[in-house]
Amino acid sequence: MPAKKVSSKKAPTRARPEAPARPVEPRPSDTPPPEAPRRPRLKKTVVILSRKRSLYSTRRMVEAIKQRGHRPLVLDTLRCTMVLAPGQPRMLYRGVDIKGVDVVIPRIGASITGYGLAVVNHFEMMGVPVLNGAGPISQSRDKLRALQLLCRSGLDVPRTVMAHDRSNVRKLVEEVGGLPVIIKLLRGTQGVGVMIAHSLQELQTIVNTFWDLGQEVVLQEFVAESKGRDVRALVVGDKVVGAMRRRAKKGEFRSNIHRGGEGHPVELSPAYIDVAVRAARLLGLEIAGVDMLEGRAGPRLMELNSSPGFEGLEKATGQDIAGAMMDHALAFASARTAAYSRPTL
Ligand SMILES: Nc1ncnc2c1ncn2[C@@H]1O[C@H](COP(=O)(O)OP(=O)(O)OP(=O)(O)O)[C@@H](O)[C@H]1O
Ligand SMILES: [Mg+2]
Ligand SMILES: [Mg+2]
């Protein structure tokens, strides 16, 4: 629901017969007279944009919302219809207007990024608090864009190059510190699209295949000292609410749970917490799964995930990650509502 700005002028009282007729001020639309400042509703409606309500993270968030006495509403992103009307953007779900939403939590899978971002953007246009917003989701989903922003701010990332020059692959390898080299699709997830090349010939074959298919890739330094492990820190607001170290299965360098990796709880040092929170803030993410490699000199950022699944993290740590996320989402919604309800002078 678009948050209404409330005028500081007094609300009109019932007309008295003796009062002289006053010209009626034109209103921007045929909406009812100005309301009193909007009081945050006690029971909030929390929309989760998700393709399936049976997904673990979606189910857990629904539970957490109910436990807190609020109303969860799971909407399939692809069934949301955006109506563009001047000054009054609306959202339809199966033909019905969606109103009275207090906060939206998008869980946008990689396969529907384009449509998903449009839906998230539309909710933002309607004045509904959204975490994460469309801009931050979009820039974190592009691994190159995210790394550009992180290293511009001085955060440590593995040496990375992006190029399209087939004649120069040897030079690219030198730039990232020699073989083996990691090759990454810009928008891969769950370890799909992350490869390793041990020889120049192998690398040449892989990059040529991708370039011929019209796919861009980045080449990255292989951080050998991480030994098939990485750290996933879940940042919510300005805190790390849970962290695990993931260990790749034998013969695999990717530690993703989806690739057979195992998660173990880990107590992060302040340096890792600081880097994870700074990285999320830099990309504007309220909720972020921050992946870091354990370099010799400390954390090396790999990527930030804007719709992080947390089944592995809850199971590894036994922590209530869904609860921490919902507490933040509800506080975020209340802070936004209070800001919108402030009278304009
Ligand atoms: N430069 C690197 N050096 C060593 N290992 C790496 C490097 N980059 C990635 N890896 C390994 O590959 C895994 C997948 O990489 P990355 O996190 O970039 O991909 P993803 O497909 O987006 O994963 P996610 O499912 O976490 O979104 C990492 O968790 C890590 O174990
Ligand atoms: Mg990822
Ligand atoms: Mg990752």
UniProtKB/TrEMBL annotation:
Keywords: ATP-binding, Ligase, Magnesium, Manganese, Metal-binding, Nucleotide-binding, Protein biosynthesis. GO terms for molecular function: ligase activity. Residues 1-13 have a biased composition (Basic residues). Coiled coil: none annotated. Residues 15-28 have a biased composition (Basic and acidic residues). Transmembrane segments: none annotated. Residues 147-330 form the ATP-grasp domain. Its cofactor is Mn(2+); Mg(2+). Residues 1-43 are annotated as: Disordered. NCBIfam families: rimK_fam. This is RimK family alpha-L-glutamate ligase. It comes from Archangium minus.
